[in-house]
Specification:
With 145 residues, the chain is of the alpha+beta class. It has three helices and eight strands. The longest helix is centred in the middle third of the chain and has 18 residues. It is globular and about 50 Å long.
Length: 145
């Protein structure tokens, strides 16, 4: 895994971070399409309690090789120019971004398909766990949907 990309970020993924990632691609003139997925923490109401934040944790030693495989297989399956994946660790408040996938290609069909493929594989395969923290201070482990 010599081409290991940093995926995990402490805390929220800020709008400035996202804007910077987008701006870095302006000089890449072979790109004709970008697609972005942003996962945001919702204020779900569960059994009368409102979620105020999610605290994310991950077994990185296990997650990193899985993410590397997803990345490599996505590049093999789709004709992409660039791919960036970021996920928060630690506490992320309601309304903040916790998951950012950004793909680029010469043409748009690949970016739509690749984004959905990446998000689905990460949600289903990568050991990332979320503890929903309620306004009352109580918490429960989040179930992925």
């Amino acid at each position: 895994m010599s081409d290991k990309k940093k995926v995990f970020i402490d805390g929220e993924i800020t709008p400035d971070f996202i804007a910077s990632a987008i701006a870095k691609h302006q000089s890449k003139t072979d790109i004709g399409a970008h697609n972005i997925f942003l996962g945001q923490v919702r204020a779900d109401v569960i059994e009368g309690q409102t979620v105020s934040a999610i605290e994310f944790s991950c077994y990185e030693e296990m997650a990193d090789p899985i993410l590397y495989t997803i990345r490599e297989e996505t590049f093999q399956k789709f004709d992409l120019s660039c791919m960036h994946i970021y996920h928060s660790l630690g506490k992320v408040n309601v309304g903040e971004i916790c998951f950012f996938v950004f793909v680029s290609a010469a043409h748009r069909p690949q970016v739509y398909e690749a984004t959905e493929y990446i998000v689905d594989r990460i949600k289903n395969e990568v050991p990332i766990f979320g503890k929903e923290i309620f306004e009352t201070g109580a918490y429960q482990w989040k179930k992925n949907k």
